[in-house]
Amino acid sequence: MPVPPITITHEFSGSVVAKGANDDLSARLLKHAGFQQIDDWHGRRHRLPTTTPVADKVAIATHAAEMLRAAHYDIDLPPSLEAARMSPPVPVLGPYAAGAELLRITDRIREAENCDDLQRAVDHLLHPEHGALERVREALEVAGEQIEALEGEQIHDLDNEAADLAYRFDYASEYVRGAQSELVNSEAKLRRIGTASRDQAEARTRSSELPDHRGAALATSPAATKARVSSASDSETAQSNAAVHPPRASGPRR
């Protein structure tokens, strides 16, 4: 009898789950890769916490699949969890290291499979102290201040043009600040959306696992059915007797 494959999936809750590892060897390989074993009334399964970073999920799932395949297990692994099928690394872009890092953040946002992953990726943009937007805003502000400083020391023949350029940098800095204010609390909202989605998914799972009592509630007991049949039979017998032996009308005696 063929053995069903071990399936590694990325669930809606954000966790990575391996199912089908019912023997000790496959369970040991999964635990060695980094999965946590769970044994409950659903059976044995292995899971990665929802807080595991996306890159770590992919690395652990890929490593587990490689070890299981080497042990001649049939593995079902989606492309999103296989390192060899992920998008190629972002080019270095020469001296533009900041641009390359922003491209990596963009890739993490694009590859997010749930709100938790998206929130963690967006945090690199929106963190009020260390996020990319705050660094860009600060750099624009400092550039404007530096132009004004150079104007006072060196640029004597371009006063108007230098002042205009400094104003543009300062305006751009304030524009980024406005963008930041528009996105305040967006990460908290993403967390709430993710929590609500997980709660709904878990509620649907629990609902599907509960026994359906509606049929039992609507079903008729055998005793009640027998009583109805007996009552109906007695009624039919009475009607039949009435039809065969009609009552005789009494007449005057002679």
Structure description:
The chain has 254 residues and is α+β, with helices and mostly antiparallel strands. The protein contains 9 helices and 5 strands, in the order ββαββαβααααααα. Helix 3 (97-111) packs antiparallel against helix 4 and helix 5 packs antiparallel against helix 6. The termini are far apart.
Keywords:
254 residues, alpha+beta, five-stranded mixed sheet, 9% strand
Brief description of this entry?
With 254 residues, this protein is of the alpha+beta class.
Strand order of the largest sheet: 3-4-2-1-5
Looking at the structure, what is the overall shape?
elongated
| Count of individual beta strands | 5
Query: What is the helical fraction, as a range of percent?
Result: 55-70%
Radius of gyration: 36 Å
Largest sheet: 5 strands, mixed
Alpha-carbon distance between the two ends? 96 Å
Tally of helical runs: 9
Mean pLDDT: 75
Secondary structure category? alpha+beta
State the order of secondary-structure elements, H for helix, E for strand: EEHEEHEHHHHHHH
Q: What is the strand content?
A: 5-15%
- Residue runs with pLDDT of under 50 for 5 or more positions: 212-221
Write the layout of secondary structure elements.
Blueprint (H helix, E strand, L loop, with lengths): L5 E5 L5 E4 L4 H10 L2 E5 L2 E6 L5 H17 L4 E2 L20 H15 L3 H12 L5 H22 L5 H24 L3 H24 L4 H5 L3 H23 L10
Parallel strand pairs: 1-5
Antiparallel strand pairs: 1-2, 2-4, 3-4
Helix pairs in contact: 1-2, 3-4, 4-7, 5-6
